[in-house]
Amino acid sequence: MLNRYIASLIFLLLSNISYAYDFKLSPVGRVRYESLSDYDLNATAGDFKSFTGSRFWILAEMTHQDYKIVFQPQFSRTWGLDEVAGPSSGTTIDPTLNVHQAYFTTPISERFQLKLGRQELSYGDELVLGSVIWSNVGRSFDAIKLEWKMGHSQLHFFSSKLSDRNATVPSSGDKDLHGLYFSGRNEMTLFNEVDVYLLDINDSTVSPHIDTLSYGFRLKGYYSFWDYRGEFTKQHLMSRESSQFDVETGVQFDPWGRLAVNYFVATEGYNQLFPTAHKWLGIGDVVSRKNVKGFQIKHQLKINEKIKTEITYHKFERYDNGATAFAFSGAALGGSTSLNNDIGEEYDLIANFSQNENLSYQLGAAYFIPGQYLKDSAKADDYTFIYLQLMLKM
Ligand SMILES: [Ca+2]
Ligand SMILES: [Ca+2]
Question: Measured in angstroms, how far is the CA atom of residue 117 from the centroid of ligand 2?
């Protein structure tokens, strides 16, 4: 009897708690098959890859007055891959569940709020800071962020601990990212988005410590059927100066879709920071934004409410023939002896079919043809990438 009384009391307490805040769940499930033939650009050496990856998450938001806790458990898994304890498919070993985001927000005053904990950082076109939604894991930061709202615009100051080396053992120090990012939004369509930022990576895990200071601006706007975006970043790595710029302009020809051209340059010492590279430098993920220049021509078409297509041609060259080209991983792509700058070209196709507001299918294909520079580096063969993705959002 007493047990039943206690149980009722607990139930009563719990049901009261559940009414004490608003609870919102946004679940997403995504499964993608990928196949890569000759990513090494060498048909003689075997490197065929084919796999299926799952990314499932529940974004749980608990709000009470001006306070909010966001918790995002995530299950990310390549099918059939072994866990530490051994194979986990068709056995009694389960893979692990991870946490992609866990933070809370609290107001400091009417215009200021603090966001504290593990969180995604996504700004502008994600050229310098992105959440990499494409990835089967995505990118998060352990960070403190102060947000200042100014109408539709915002000024954010954040500081993230990228690596802590003296938490458990004494060591030289940590690696931190500090940033100041102004996202200006206004009514003028021609300068619809005006961003200015300052980012500093202070790496004290090495001796002497390294400071990478980057500052830049970004513009985005449109006028009638014409649109553009552009971003320029200047960088100082101790005494070395680097920079990048990336501009795109497009025209909407209804009902024939949008035709756009993009031109980009990144000098040989440029540190691309934390971008969603997959979004801009070709879905084949061959190069990174470092010692590269080139252009793309893109055609985007909305056939109807359900079907969208995107076809892109990319051209990549080295900016400086005194340094190698750089692969998506950041490692050298090709040798340093060739004087030719032609890295190669890539054709991309993305077709998206939304069955309804919840379920969508996406087919993607990339075909990369090496240029003379890579041919001189014994990377002379074409690379093909294909994926098929199904996503359910609720
Ligand atoms: Ca190969
Ligand atoms: Ca520390």
Answer: 16
Ligand nearest to the CA of 204: 2
- The CA 201 to ligand 2 mean position distance, Å, reads 15
Query: Token pair for residue 122?
Result: 């996504």
- Three-state SS string over 57-82 comes to EEEEEEEECCEEEEEEEEEEEECCCC
d(CA 245, CA 264): 6
The CA 95 to ligand 1 mean position distance, Å, reads 31
How far is 30 from 75, CA to CA, in rounded Å?
Answer: 10
Considering every ligand atom, which ligand is closest to the CA of 49?
1
- Rounded CA-CA distance 295/105 in Å is 41
In terms of Cα–Cα distance, which of 220, 199, 200, 212 is closest to 239?
Answer: 212
Q: Which ligand is nearest to the CA of 205?
A: 2
pLDDT at 19: 59
Ligand nearest to the CA of 175: 2
Contact indicator for 314, 282 with CB cutoff of 8 Å: yes
pLDDT of 132 over the 80 cut: yes
Tens digit of each residue's pLDDT (9 = 90 or more) over 175-202 = 999 999 999 999 889 999 999 999 999 9
Cross-strand pairs, 62: 23, 69
- Residue 20 is predicted with a pLDDT of 79
Q: Are residues 124 and 195 in contact, defined by beta-carbon separation less than 8 angstroms?
A: yes
Ligand 2: distance of its center to the CA of 206 in Å? Answer: 14
Instruction: Give the separation between CA 173 and CA 292, rounded to whole angstroms.
Output: 33
pTM of the full predicted structure?
Answer: 0.91
In angstroms, what CA-CA distances link 99 with 68, 142, 172?
Answer: 17, 12, 29
Instruction: Check pLDDT > 70 for residue 18.
Output: no
Q: Which residue has the higher pLDDT, 3 or 217?
A: 217
Rg of the chain over all Cα atoms, to the nearest angstrom: 24
CA neighbor of 352 nearest in space, from 309, 303, 298, 392: 309
Q: Torsions phi, psi of 2, nearest 5?
A: -65, -40
Q: Separation of 163 CA from ligand 2 center, angstroms?
A: 8
Closest ligand to the CA of 142? 2
C-alpha 72 to ligand 2 mean position (Å): 25
